[in-house]
């Protein structure tokens, strides 16, 4: 069985973070493991408190996994602070691990800062160059590049700029655009467009986490990046179509093995 790891924060309401990632891994038939970087007190209405896990404990979790188990691919989500970023980068280099999907989580849908502003530079310096795929949304791509993004052409410019910072493949997500939800992938040579019609729902809690963990699961299954992203785009679209009106605010996406079948991906690998 293929094995995937998520290094991310816990979302008590189960819609984003570690919980979304593990559900997504399971839906893809991949064995899921976790390194928890922070615990959030969070629900569909907001993030109310965050407790960061110590860098030592994060390092120990990574060691415990890599000393014992062959990881096929991993994703990095919420990393909070500079020391957390540094210990993750050090450990992944120590274990010579390169099947890395980086979701540069900065601000939650509910507007809470999940990455300390001063840690942005460390994320760019230490984690971006390790990423096989990085998956910023539009506001994150704007922070990383300093560019203003309004059009597909702007997304492409930002993708190139982020590639220049050292990430091998850059996927800029179009969820925050006005009209459709087209994502752009740049691999250093060519741009690929993954068109997506905008689904009219407010229940998009955890969409970025779900997409990046789906890509991680597909990479763990040995699927090349371009096709992994294509399949994961289908998965996230189906998961948003079936999103759940749980709680009083922004509800979560739905993970179900049947969704995976519905997205037509079970015959792969
Ligand atoms: N309303 C929507 N309809 C269809 N696809 C969406 C919608 N919102 C987000 N997506 C897609 O979900 C994925 C996550 O994107 P986004 O919401 O931008 O990430 P984040 O959660 O990091 O802000 C992308 O593939 C994006 O195109
Ligand atoms: C622990 C954790 N990680 C990531 C997100 C981002 O997800 P979203 O952008 O959908 O709020 C979150 N809300 N909580």
UniProtKB/TrEMBL annotation:
The catalytic activity of this protein is classed by the Enzyme Commission as 2.7.1.49, 2.7.4.7
Out of the domains of life, which is the source?
Bacteria
Which GO terms of the molecular function aspect are on file? ATP binding; hydroxymethylpyrimidine kinase activity; phosphomethylpyrimidine kinase activity
Quote the catalytic activity from the record. Answer: 4-amino-5-hydroxymethyl-2-methylpyrimidine + ATP = 4-amino-2-methyl-5-(phosphooxymethyl)pyrimidine + ADP + H(+); 4-amino-2-methyl-5-(phosphooxymethyl)pyrimidine + ATP = 4-amino-2-methyl-5-(diphosphooxymethyl)pyrimidine + ADP
What InterPro entries does the record point to? HMP/HMP-P_kinase_dom (IPR004399), PM/HMP-P_kinase-1 (IPR013749), Ribokinase-like (IPR029056)
Can you name a GO cellular component term? cytosol
**Pathway(s) this gene product operates in, as recorded in its UniProt entry:** Cofactor biosynthesis; thiamine diphosphate biosynthesis; 4-amino-2-methyl-5-diphosphomethylpyrimidine from 5-amino-1-(5-phospho-D-ribosyl)imidazole: step 3/3; Cofactor biosynthesis; thiamine diphosphate biosynthesis; 4-amino-2-methyl-5-diphosphomethylpyrimidine from 5-amino-1-(5-phospho-D-ribosyl)imidazole: step 2/3
Gene3D superfamilies reported in the protein's UniProt record: 3.40.1190.20
> Which keywords, in A-to-Z order, does the entry hold?
ATP-binding, Kinase, Nucleotide-binding, Thiamine biosynthesis, Transferase
Domain named Pyridoxamine kinase/Phosphomethylpyrimidine kinase is located at: 11-254
- CDD domains found in the cross-reference section: HMPP_kinase
Q: Which Pfam families match?
A: Phos_pyr_kin
A Gene Ontology biological process noted in the UniProt record is: thiamine biosynthetic process
Protein family according to the UniProt entry: Belongs to the ThiD family.
- Return the PANTHER family for the record: HYDROXYMETHYLPYRIMIDINE_PHOSPHOMETHYLPYRIMIDINE KINASE THI20-RELATED (PTHR20858:SF17), PHOSPHOMETHYLPYRIMIDINE KINASE (PTHR20858)
* Listed name of the protein: Hydroxymethylpyrimidine/phosphomethylpyrimidine kinase
């Amino acid at each position: 069985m293929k094995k995937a790891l998520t290094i991310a924060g816990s979302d008590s309401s189960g819609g984003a973070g570690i919980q979304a990632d593990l559900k997504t891994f399971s839906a893809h038939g991949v064995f899921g493991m976790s390194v928890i970087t922070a615990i959030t007190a969070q629900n569909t209405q907001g993030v109310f408190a965050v407790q960061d896990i110590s860098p030592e404990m994060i390092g120990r979790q990574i060691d415990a996994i890599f000393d014992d188990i062959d990881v096929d691919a991993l994703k990095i989500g919420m990393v909070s602070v500079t020391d957390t970023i540094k210990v993750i980068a050090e450990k992944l280099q120590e274990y010579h691990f390169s099947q890395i999907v980086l979701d540069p989580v900065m601000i939650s849908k509910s507007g809470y800062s999940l990455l300390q502003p001063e840690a942005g530079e460390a994320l760019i310096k230490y984690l971006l160059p390790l990423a096989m795929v990085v998956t910023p949304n539009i506001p994150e791509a704007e922070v990383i590049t300093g560019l203003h993004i309004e059009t597909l052409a702007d997304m492409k410019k930002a993708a190139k700029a982020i590639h220049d910072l050292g990430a091998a493949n850059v996927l800029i997500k179009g969820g925050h655009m006005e009209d459709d939800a087209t994502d752009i992938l740049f691999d250093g040579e060519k741009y690929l467009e993954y068109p997506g019609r905008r689904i009219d729902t407010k229940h998009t809690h955890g969409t970025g986490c779900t997409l990046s963990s789906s890509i991680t699961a597909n990479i763990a299954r040995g699927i090349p990046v371009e096709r992994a992203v294509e399949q994961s785009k289908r998965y996230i679209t189906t998961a948003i179509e079936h999103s759940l009106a749980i709680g009083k605010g922004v509800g979560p996406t739905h993970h179900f093995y049947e969704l995976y079948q519905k997205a037509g991906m079970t015959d792969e690998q």
